[in-house]
Amino acid sequence: MESPWHATAPPTRPRPRGEGQWALGYTEPLNPAEVAKKENDGLDVYDRIVNLYAKKGFASIWPSDLRNRFRWYGLYTQRPETDGYLMMRIRIPGGILTSEQLDEIGRISETFGRDVADVTDRQNIQLHWIRIEDVPEIWDRLEAVGLSTTEACGDTPRNILGCPLAGIDATEIVDASAVLAEASARLVGDPAFSNLPRKFKISISGCEHGCAQHEINDIGLVGARHPSGDAGFDLWVGGGLSTNPMFARRLGAFISPDQVVDAVIGITEIFRDWGYRRARNRARLKFLMRDWGPERFREMLEKQIGFALRDLPEPVPSEVAGIEHLGVWPQRDGLRYVGFAPRAGRISGHQLRTIADLARRYGEGRIRTTTQQKMVILDVPEASVEQLVGDLERQDLPVRATAWRRGTMACTGIEFCKLAIVETKGRAEELFRYLERHLPGFEEDIRINVNGCPNSCARYQTADIGLMGCQIPQRTWVTDAHGDQVQEVRKVEGFLVHLGGHLGRDLGLGRKVRGVKVPASEIGPYVGTLVRRFRRQRSEGESFASFIARLTDAQLAEFGSKPEFPSAPPPPIALAEVRA
Questions:
Q1: At what angle do helices 349-362 and 99-112 cross, to 10 degrees?
Q2: Per-residue DSSP letters for 432-453?
Q3: Mean pLDDT, residues 194-214 taken together
Q4: Arithmetic mean of pLDDT over the chain
Q5: With the CA atoms of 307, 277, 239 and 460 taken in that order, what torsion angle do they form, in degrees rounded to the nearest 10?
Q6: Rounded to the nearest 5°, which phi and psi values hold at 331?
Q7: Closest CA to 100 of 348, 361, 360, 368
Q8: Is the peptide bond before 80 cis (omega within 30 degrees of 0)?
């Protein structure tokens, strides 16, 4: 189906501005981003990158391409933009990688990206320090191993999430890997879907643990059984976080495996044609769902795909939401999978190459990334497990990671991201190292998500402890030019705090702790105090989220005050030294 830019004739008489919905004939762009997309489709920038910008350099790039269309090929300018370096996001549908692919990513990172990479919470791998002159060669090398950066960003269908154990886990309801791959192939690179109102996130998982966060994606398909006994998916639509967080809504519809691609395409078409294009801050599908409701949305979907969907009673939510996939666990074929934890998602190119080599040596060369910034090697014979565990440990990739390391993740942060206002990767590592020292032996699952801005790339609203970057005014006395003592106000890095967020059973967003801003250098003592008081005051068997839910706002603000732990040392700067 062609894009309405090509298929819909202009209206014969002026129409009210409305929300800019194409289906109602409002095809005139209502903001600069929509103007840029109408002037030139994001997919068209490929030829200019290869034939113009890569040959003439960073200074030759059109501003409208650099700040907009580059995203259609997974490229963002890196902080500071004047340096001329790019961040590149590699699309990895379902987190499925071969050792050959991971080895090539590692080599590219070493050759072109100063040996720095990030495993993201959307199962991508991001590279940094990329020069525009090197992009065509990088693309050629990725394409040679079956990888791509196409539509890893932009107003497009982003990387589709899946369970890292699809086809492996003996307890999964249905293997979603084939339908996920088919949906990705149908959507990515098709001009019919390259101009959506905003970014569009999809999750397709057949497991029973909700590990692909169906509740917070635009489309969430999670494994479910129909009362007839058929295995398929429960359909959720309209989730998203950022500054207006909303959970997806169940449509009460059962999607059989052979209906998945039709449903995904149908919902994408509805979003394209009916989504709001007037204001960027309310252009996500969640706003359309809020206004329509699940009943009307299901009615429109059935009309779009041309057949009725079977009803599905609400399944019992999983007790365990977002399982980490860390440690050593059995596969359905008797082999083992081994999951391990990078440092809050940060990893190096040479580590990626080592992981690829270990996957070949101990398994069959199959690797997965997870939605918790972790990685998994599949197909390991039981007799080889401990050797692999030791080899990973020597690479600072622990399989039996502490609760603090496995429960902490972070977005890219101010080191590379233009939107971030605080450091995140280094702060997250400082935090889990601090907690390992001061709360050793702690084994409960408490998730700590560190975010550099309100956009929630690290999902701070759904963590037990969500830390969102902010600037805190700090007053100090200084001596002026006349020798007088005067007060000086300067901004220091800090974090706003959200507590008790969780997915799965009784899902809920974290509660903002009003009036509390924690200096970045003190997040270790603050979090340590939270955990110690939780353990002291909770009821038997009570989870952190349940404990937080019963506190008043005043109790919540008091909960982490007057830290009981020593101040943290200055933050590590090892990662920042890469820039120098």
A1: 160
A2: HHHHHHHSTT--S---EEEESS
A3: 95
A4: 92
A5: 160
A6: -95, 170
A7: 360
A8: yes
If one counts every other C-beta atom within 10 angstroms of the C-beta of residue 535, the result is 13
The two beta strands, 96-98 and 511-519, are unpaired
At residue 33, what is the residue type?
A
Is residue 107 within 8 Å of residue 349, measured between CB atoms?
Answer: yes
Q: Reduced to 3 states, what is the DSSP secondary structure of residue 486?
A: strand
**Residue 16: partners with Cβ closer than 8 Å, 6 or more residues away:** none
Residue pair 401/326 in contact (Cβ under 8 Å)? The answer is yes
Q: Which pLDDT belongs to residue 567?
A: 72
Q: Which residue has the tokens 């009981």?
A: 564
Q: Return the amino acid letter for 580.
A: A
Q: Give the span between the Cα atoms of 389 and 328, in whole angstroms.
A: 9
Question: What separation in angstroms does the CA of 53 have from each of 50, 69, 108?
Answer: 7, 13, 20
Token pair, residue 193, equals 């879907």
User: Are the C-beta atoms of residues 265 and 251 closer than 8 Å to each other?
Assistant: no
Sign of the alpha-carbon dihedral angle for 164, 169, 171, 174 = positive
CA 219 – CA 239 distance, rounded (Å): 7
Grouping H, G, I as helix, E, B as strand and the rest as coil, residue 77 is strand
Q: Are 427 and 458 in contact (CB under 8 A)?
A: no
Q: How confident is the model at residue 415 (pLDDT cuts 50, 70, 90)?
A: very high
Does residue 576 surpass a pLDDT of 60? Answer: no
Q: Please give the domain boundaries of the chain with CATH numbers for all domains.
A: 31-153+325-399 (3.90.480.10), 177-311 (3.30.413.10), 406-578 (3.30.413.10)
Q: What is the DSSP string of 272-307?
A: HHHS--S-GGG-SHHHHHHHHHHHHHHHHHHHHHTS
Residue 99 phi, psi (nearest 5) = -60, -35
Using CA atoms, how far apart are residues 269 and 288, in angstroms rounded to an integer?
13
| Tokens (6 digits) for 324 | 């980490």
Between CA 427 and CA 433 the distance in angstroms is 10
State pLDDT tens for residues 378-389.
999 999 999 999
498-518 residue pLDDT tens: 999 999 888 999 999 998 999
* Residues 20 and 276 sit within 8 Å (Cβ to Cβ): yes
Angle, alpha carbons 193-28-240 (nearest 5°): 45
Report pLDDT for 322.
60
Task: Supply the pLDDT for residue 17.
Answer: 58
- Summarised one tens digit per residue, pLDDT across range 15-31 is 445 899 999 999 999 99
By CB atoms closer than 10 A (0-12, 13-18, 19+), residue 409 is: buried
Burial of residue 46 (CB within 10 Å: 0-12, 13-18, 19+) is middle
Q: How far is CA 553 from the centre of its chain?
A: 29
pLDDT in tens, 110-126: 999 999 999 999 999 99
CB 152 within 8 A of CB 76: no
